[in-house]
Amino acid sequence: MCGIFGWWGEGEKEVLHRMADSLRHRGPDGEGFFYQQGVGMGMTRLAILDREQGGQPVRSQGGEVVVVCNGEIYNFRELKGELEREGYVFRTSNDVEVLPAAYEVWGIGFLEKLQGMFAIALFDGKRRELFLARDRCGQKPLYFTKDGRRMVFASELRALWVAGVEKRMNSEVLPLYLNLRYVPEPATVFEGVEILEAGCYWSSGSGKVRRWWRPETDERNSGSVEDLHGVVKKAVGEALVSDEPIAVHLSAGVDSSVLLAEIAHSGVEVTALTAGFGAASDESVEAGNFARAMGVEHEEVRLGPEDLRNLPRVVDQMEVPVGDALVVAFDRLAEATAGVGCKVALGGEGVDEVFAGYSFQKVMLCADRLGGFGRKLATTALNVLPFGLVQKMSAFPAEIGNTGLQKIRRYLAEYEDLSDLRKGIELRTLFDEGELGSLGLEMPSRELDQGGELFERHLRFQFQSWLQDWAIVRQERNTMAHSVEYRMPFLDHRLVEFGLEAPRSAKIRGLKGKVLWREMARRYYPEAKAGRVKQPFYFPVEQESYFDVIEELVMGTVLGDNSKVDEVVPKEVVRKLWEVVMRERDFLSLKKMMALVVLDLWMGQFA
């Protein structure tokens, strides 16, 4: 695990050292550089495997292929065996050493043989060609920018700035941020800077980005419980390879409980950590009891209103705005992981996206099946039912409030006229297209890809957009800020392919999601309480105890004299939103306000 960086074209060797210094948090255990006319590469190392001999860059036996890699290649021992039969001799027990040899044997197709998470820069000296590649699920980031003289790349944006890349805000994507709370790849919030899309590679030979892996949702397997369990065991077992202590980020939900149970069954010693907020959805006590029942040491990370004062620092270390106060919780978990002496942490991300575990997925299916008459009846019912009953029917523990209720009513009433894309995302957006239009902001044109029914197309969209740009980035950037490597075993591509290619009935039946996953948990991990209702992981900012700190943040940013966000959203609009927040204390208005606070902090630091 490390930070990687470099350029193709014009560049000075001294710039590589400046880029390394900017990424020291990603790799405090060492550094390495490769430089020759027209190409420079470097890395800062977080030593997880073979501390003594695992440095980079790594060269092929003939010295003509040079590689730097950020991530872990979980099947490197298997690949070493194949390559040794081809005559290769390896000197270390480090995973990255297999990459130049694999490229020499299989060409750029070697990417398809890799299992793990990675961002790779590979220079082929014989062909004078540079390749950049990113893993299938986008677990490791890789940014790049091109001008007439050079292409510059790095694991984090800050390394581009010290290399002399001009920092300019990409105002065209701000409506996307206000709508989604993130900016979908490959675009970024900086003009001229892209993130290499998951499952893609770039080559200097063609100058183009090409896709080497694509998620499919065609039904290609029967969705058997036994087969799923076999894939889970293999994925978790491979993700445990480490010479350093390992932590597990644990909730009391079925996904991370399955993860911890499988690790406990394997006999590998880990420490479990759980974030607790003291709210209605707090799972820390239940998670602690489960960990101890599995014979695993447990640490609770207690969060409260004071933690929100860390938001400016967390926005700074994330570099890209993700519009949710919850980013602070991921920072605290990462800090606590390092504090208990673990350099590796595992989490249960990916199952909800692949096996349909989110409530908005079920609501879209229900709305689609109800038809026009059924949706009209449902809208009428929402108009006459007592608000308290509607709140109890909601999957979210916080008050949905009048604005939330109006959003649901409008969704059902307008469903028939919504685009296919909006049918799946409308309930989880903040500022809708109408609100953005009233601000003079226009949403960039976007469509769902074709092929398959609406449900399957949205699964692919969530996997390719929401997962990378919302879920993964919060973990990756905050753990690496504390020199901790974060692994997501359930994003093993074999498990992802299994889930996406399973029949819809294996994912969702009626209002029940993750059907096959829960069946597997019941049979093989009964301790994990497969029937447990999903609890959202969220910062309870609607509680009265948070309002002093929230008001302090709001007045110091979006309603302050030095606000930057009023370049996008007029202060009067923000003021009216704040009045709604103070009057109704509803969660949707609060989420809008916190997304604006994050954007203002980001604009003040980076734009």
What do these coordinates show?
The protein has 607 residues and is α+β, with helices and mostly antiparallel strands. The chain has three domains: 2-211, Glutamine Phosphoribosylpyrophosphate, subunit 1, domain 1; 215-537, HUPs (Rossmann fold, 3-Layer(aba) Sandwich), CATH 3.40.50.620; 544-605, no CATH class. Helix content is 42%, strand content 15%. The chain is built from 22 helices and 19 strands. The strands form four sheets. Strands 2-3-1-9-8-10 form a six-stranded antiparallel sheet. Strands 4-5-6-7-11-12 form a six-stranded antiparallel sheet. The chain has a five-stranded parallel sheet with strand order 15-14-13-16-17, sandwiched between helices. Strand 14, helix 8 (284-293) and strand 15 form a beta-alpha-beta unit. Helix 6 crosses helix 19. It is globular. The model has no long low-confidence stretch (mean pLDDT 92).
Topology:
Blueprint: E1 2-9, H1 13-22, E2 31-36, E3 39-45, E4 58-59, E5 65-73, H2 76-85, H3 98-106, E6 116-124, E7 129-134, E8 143-146, E9 150-154, H4 157-162, H5 174-180, E10 193-195, E11 200-203, E12 209-211, H6 225-239, E13 246-249, H7 254-266, E14 271-276, H8 284-293, E15 297-302, H9 311-318, H10 327-339, E16 344-346, H11 351-355, H12 359-384, H13 387-393, H14 401-414, H15 420-425, H16 433-438, H17 454-481, E17 485-487, H18 493-500, E18 508-509, E19 512-513, H19 515-524, H20 547-556, H21 571-584, H22 587-605
Parallel strand pairs: 13-14, 13-16, 14-15, 16-17
Antiparallel strand pairs: 1-3, 1-9, 2-3, 4-5, 5-6, 6-7, 7-11, 8-9, 8-10, 11-12, 18-19
Helix pairs in contact: 2-3, 6-7, 6-18, 6-19, 9-22, 10-17, 12-14, 21-22
